[in-house]
Write a structure and sequence with these properties.
seven-stranded mixed sheet, 20% strand, globular, 217 residues
């Protein structure tokens, strides 16, 4: 009599082998995932280090000497080591400058007492038209927390280059002119080191958080 093949035992061997294969596959997957995570972590750290090294290699900011909207000299020492937020623009600006100055005054007001630790500066890139008197009338419309600064074209150029700010005069068809310029607010610690930027149109809560952290440096 021919005995039937022990199907159950045969299936058991297949099942056991399958489990081993699955187990090995899972271990292989774990190793691959771990390796990928490690590579990603290493890459992230490496990129973060690269960004830090780049920011350290490129000097942004530095001492400056300009004229305040009060007509008095104003330089880096006038801030007594306070951290500062600096924005470059001009009083004839149709939208970016008034919007940014309004937002800056609102951010500072929201900070409460912490705002007293931050000096807000508005540097004109159009000294031909923006005299101290013009600056005073313009900036004062946005409150009393922002200091307007002007100077000679050479002085403005020196400060703008130090802060990596672009600007240029653009002639208009009607014979007038406007000024194209960088629209970000630059943030600096009390020791003059670069802290970061607030982009034009950045969310208010993000900008306020940056200023709050800056005030504590």
């Amino acid at each position: 009599m021919i005995r039937p093949i022990p199907v159950v035992a045969w299936r058991g061997r297949i099942a056991l082998g399958s489990l081993k294969i699955i187990r090995y596959a899972l271990w292989a997957l774990v190793v691959i995932v771990a390796g990928a995570v490690g590579y990603i972590s290493f890459t992230t750290v490496r990129e973060a280090n690269s960004v830090q090294q780049l920011s350290e290699a490129v000097q942004i900011g530095g001492p400056f000497e300009l004229t305040a909207m009060t007509g008095e000299p104003f330089d880096t020492s006038s801030m007594d080591g306070a951290p500062y937020a600096i924005f470059f623009g001009f009083t004839y600006c149709p939208d970016v400058c008034p919007t940014t100055l309004f937002e800056m005054s609102t951010w500072l007001e929201t900070l409460g007492d912490d705002a007293n630790n931050v000096q807000a500066l508005f540097v004109t890139v159009d000294p031909e038209r923006d005299t101290p008197e013009v600056l005073s009338d313009y900036v004062s419309a946005f409150g009393d927390r922002i200091m307007g600064l002007t100077g000679t074209p050479a002085e403005i150029g020196t400060v703008a280059r130090a802060h990596r700010v672009f600007y240029q005069r653009t002639e208009l068809d009607d014979g007038d002119y406007t000024m194209d310029h960088t629209a970000s607010v630059f943030l600096f610690r009390g020791d003059g080191s670069f802290f970061g930027t607030i982009a034009y149109g950045e969310a208010a809560d993000s900008a306020q958080e940056k200023l709050k952290r800056l005030a504590k440096t």
